[in-house]
Amino acid sequence: MRGPLTQRTPMENGASYEIPLVFLISSSLQRPVKRTRTTPTKNRNRVRSGLSRRVLGRLSELPAMSLDILYEIFGHLPPSDLLSLSRVNKAFRHVLMSRRSLFLWKASFALIPDVPGCPEDMSEPAWAHLLFGGAYCYSCGAKPVTKILFSLRRRACKSCMRTHLLCASFLPKDFREMFSSIIVNSGSNFHQLRPWCTEHLWDEDVKAFHSEICAIEPRVLGTGSISDTEAILNEFLERRKKSAAYIKEHTLICVAWEKGRNADRSAVLSDVKAKRFEEIKKRFIKLGYIEDDVNRIRWHREVSTSKPMSDRGEPDSVPELSHLTCAELVWQRIEPLLIPEINKSRDLRLRSTGERYTRRREFVASQFANVVKTLSPLLLGLSPTFMEFLCASRTLANAVALDSDPDNSALGEQTREAISKLAQELETRRQERTDLLRSLLPKDIVSKYATDDEALSLATSVYECLSCHQILSGLHMLAHRCYGPQKSRGQSPQFSEKGRETVVALLSLIGLGRETTALELDRRSDKFVCMWCPLTSYLGDETFSQRRPVRDWRSCVIHALAKEHEDKDTSASIPRWIVVGETETAGLHWDGDAIFGAYSCMHCPPRLERRYGYIEWRGLEAVKEHTRVEHNKEMPASQ
User: Fold this and answer.
1) Would you give the distance in Å from CA 591 to the centre of its chain?
2) Tell me, what DSSP letter sits at residue 118?
3) Where does the record place the F-box domain (predicted)?
4) How far is the CA of 557 from the CAs of 34, 459, 552, 594, in angstroms?
5) Is the pLDDT at 24 greater than 80, yes or no?
6) Is 383 helix (H, G, I), strand (E, B) or coil?
7) How many C-beta atoms surround the C-beta of residue 271 within 10 A?
8) The pTM is what?
9) Would you place residue 570 in the very low, low, confident or very high pLDDT band (cuts 50, 70, 90)?
10) Taking CA atoms, which of 74, 84, 159, 272 is between 20 and 30 Å from 394?
11) Which of 528, 514, 510, 524 is nearest to 576 (CA)?
């Protein structure tokens, strides 16, 4: 008989023998000798993700608490916090999604005044998810989707609404009565999608309705009389009609609650914006600005944002800034961004009122113009306008505005100091942009021995600015000044592989290699036609009623990236581009000298007297004509 501390082990011949468990336990406790590591660990310096050990230590005991304590804690949380807790781990989800925790959700909804009650066709967690679960589309996950479609019990983006909504206006009358429980009145939610359709159906609701019909089909087929069949169908339709009436009534209550909630939220955000503006105004007035100057920057994105000045991490987290308050930390960040804007406001005000200020401003402008004339073309493209130069430095702007020295001696010294800093900043900015553009070029198309200027001057170096979506060659992108949206203002280039392929195709047509520069192509003035474009009719042209546009190589690149021929079969026998001569362009429409050129006249006063304060880039032929007519010069000094 086998003892309690033994284990019977079978043998090969069918017999068995007993081994004391103490040997098994002792052998299992002996850890095998590890092999010495000879290679370094790959992920030794890997950054850990998730919560820190300190935070995990505080929360690790929470799931192990008794339900009474957890229920007491959860009873004070709003529905949004309960939803977040249910998504932490399986233990919390098991507790909160149980029917025994239904009282928690009801108590949670009671904490929010005037919130609509949970509808009969939804559970409390599902209702909380619809109201407070997140502003995203239930079908594709797109964000943000702030509008709740209460009649459909979901959130949906415009793209999914176009896909899933079915027009119910063309249903026959009999079917409309049957589908009345899931037909949704369009209202203002869907008017922009289908203004000609007044009522809609959601395709998933139609499928669910069809499933309910199939569920009662056995009962209908099992009846022996027509009266029983009609009774079953009438009962089903009456139940659906009552559900439709309830959904419609409940939707009106929810819409009214949502309007009031949005109004309250707008009032709160407006109050936060007003307090933030007042705090910024006080700080600028202490710096010597007046209220009218501050009011001009009220709608700047750093001023009109709905975040309080104290909405930032605790300053104790950074030892060097532990002596500063949260508001002072925010001010340190936004002050350099707002100083140029408020200086521009003061400059516009003083130019219209003070003659003394105008003379001092012209003195600084003359010093700036003398320096700008000595800049190289690329540095000129990177240089700021005079307005930006004057307003970027608070010291120089205050020296011009406050008028503290009658003989302009201090003003001249500060101007020379600002100009000396400008030259260094331009060189640094040029090198940073050059390094960025060179790093974006594929290594297989540019020799590693080529200099930065040689690599960027190639015609195959084509970039696209992600902010303003301009298609530019390398050197033009180096001097590009982006006027995109305010939030994305700044240079954000991206190498265009499709643009490079277009240039390579054009170079092969005219028999040039890939080492050809953009300037060499511009001087050749070759003209191309896209044969994928259809023949177009032009009104008022009786000689050539239909024709295709003729483009220069830059216009061809822009046209190729315009995505007009995405669905074109590239394997077709029709060539994409053909070269046309001067005699062949008589019946074709010229579309050359792209809107965004790459040259500018250097004889004109640069960036100082122009209305908008930036270089006007044009095509090479346009610049040649300009210099011949305006400056009586045949060969322009152009960039």
Assistant:
1) 33
2) P
3) 59-108
4) 62, 11, 9, 10
5) no
6) coil
7) 12
8) 0.65
9) low
10) 272
11) 528
